[in-house]
Every structure is written in C-alpha cells, then in structure tokens.
Amino acid sequence: MSADPAVTQIVQSLPAWRRAVLKVGSSLLAADGGGLSPRFALGLAQFVSASQAAGREVVIVSSGAVAAGRAILPKVDEAGAAIAARQALAALGQAQMIGLWQRFFERPVAQVLLTHDDLRNRRRYLNARATLNELLALGALPVVNENDTVSVDELKLGDNDNLAAIVAALIDAEVLFIATDIDGLYDANPRTNPLARLVPEVVELTPEVFAMAGGSGSAVGTGGMRTKLEAASKAGAAGIDTVLFNGRRSEVLRGLAHDRLEGTRIRAARSRIAARKYWLRHAPLEPGAILVDAGAAAAIAQKGASLLPGGIAGAEGDFRRGDMVEVLLRDAGGEQRVARGISQYSAVDVRRIARRHSREIEAILGYNYGGNVIHRDDLVLM
Q: Which top-rank group of organisms is this from (predicted)?
C-alpha cells in the first residue's frame, strides 16, 4: 500500500504523557508462513525502551498467540475450528508470544491475561488494576492479552483494540498508542483509492468519522479501523488520547520516541468520567435487567437517587448479587434504558422484594444486604 507522501509527512506533537498503553496487532507480529517474526516487533520494542529510559511507563497489549500456536501445530485449521481447538492454539502460542517480547528487553516481561469476568466483576477489576500498577512499580513490562484459553465466544471481550482501551483506563494512562499496518485513519480506503487522504487529527468521533472506517464487514475497514475508532471512543471517555500510526515504518517509530507523530491523533472528550463511573459504563453486562416504574426512573435520572425495592416492577434473567445489570423503564411508550449498575441482590431476590419497603427486606429474604437494590455510587445513567 502506498500513501500520498505529502500527507504522510505531516508531523505533529504527541500529547504529554507519563504512562501509556501500546497495542500491537497480529499483522505486525505474524511471520509469512506462520509463527511470529521480530521484523516489526524490534522497532516497537525500541520505542518502548526509549520511553522507559525517559522515565515513562508502558503496558503492551499484544496479539499473536494464536498465530504462534498455529506454527507449532500447523495441522489445526483455525478457520472454522472448534472453540477448543482455537483455545489450544492460544495456549501453545502464549509462551512464544511472551518469549518474542522478552528477547528485546533486559527488564522482566510479565504476562497478564484478562477475561470478560475480570472486567465485569468490580473486585477482580480492581485486583487487575493493582497487579498492573505493582508490576510497573517493580520496573517490569506487562504484556496483556485476552485469556483466549478459557474465554468462549459469548463471553469474549471482543478484540485487542477495545481491550487496550479498557487497560488504558484501568491504569490511568494518558495516551493509547495503536500500532497498525497503515499510516492512520484515511478518509477512504488507501488500498483501493489512490486519492485517499490521511486524517492527521480527529477532534470528535462523529458518525462521519466512523463512516470513513466503513462497517465491520466492509472492505473500507481494512486493518480493523472501525474497532480502532471504537477503542478510541472508549479511551476518550476516560480522558485518554488515542494515536494511530504505522508500526512497520522505522522512521515513524523513531519519531514517536521523540514525541513526534506521523499518523492520526484522536483527541479525548473534554470531560473526564470518574474512574468508577467509567468502569460502570463500559464493563460487560450480565444478561438480565431490573424493571422500574416511572417514579423510580425519574428519581434515578433527575435526582441521582439509589434504586430502592419500592420502585421496582420486576426482574429479567438470572443475574446474581454483584452482577452488572441494566435498569429499564418499560411502559406504554416502549422501553427506555435508564441506567446500569451493580445489583446488591440476585434476580430471584429482586423479584421477591419488588414493590416492598426497604425495611421489609430482611423479613422477606431472611437476610439483608442493605436497603438499596443498586446504590447511587454503583449506578451510571444511560
């Protein structure tokens, strides 16, 4: 792919940062014929080393485990393979992927595998945060990946672009670097349209900007650009800028080490959501919902109130205490998503205490986790 040289030579300053997440995709690590190659990983590692030498901290979110596993057992057909086969490839390849990164650094490289449940469960989310912070304090280089060995399709986080955005918010990073195999965001597909122009800066992620990346199955979305914009949206909600750049160009990587960007900078939203509220907004939901009446919906939306049993009309699904669920208002006008939050009671318990007073909870259930079904500190409006 060739891009317009006059456009790709636009250089801008990086945002100030002390801590960052670097996401590296399989296209930069996979070798021709299978396995992993150090060809592009070396330049990325040099950028990380230069950043660390300047007193900065970096966490890598790296793909490549399945590609590495496929080289070990090439007879396994990953395309259309059973979930167990893909998980086996990931398990075989994880050590190879970590070994690739370790070869470039004198400091220890630490493997951190995250799952859907680690980010849905508040306690485990905070444990992951504490682990990453401690690894950084110890001078290690954390390399994060989704734990494909135990994840199943219906519980997967999805892709490493969005995982990187979640990790960036998890560790309070100032910038999310996404290394790809093209120079950044273009206003058209640069592989098919010679007039495509690089977009050096995005101030706001509007529908028009997303349209540049095409749909998830569109040829315009080459390189998964839409998921990168989705990740930038998540990062931006936490006050984190996203930088897209070509990880195959050594001169671009050298420029990044000196805070010069040739690529696309996607600026964060002006207002920063508090860390807890951010997690509440983006953590995966448990199937199910709590149904409320109009009075409870208004109290939550307009007064910042907690959700009490008296305003609950019912519950759907089979969620448990501590799960993240939606709060829905369903009436003659249709269905409205009011909020999402952590339920202090299971779906079975919510059904039993619906329309009752908080002081009756213990008499009905035989125990009491508090008078709020969802406390206002555990709620975020939708």
A: Bacteria
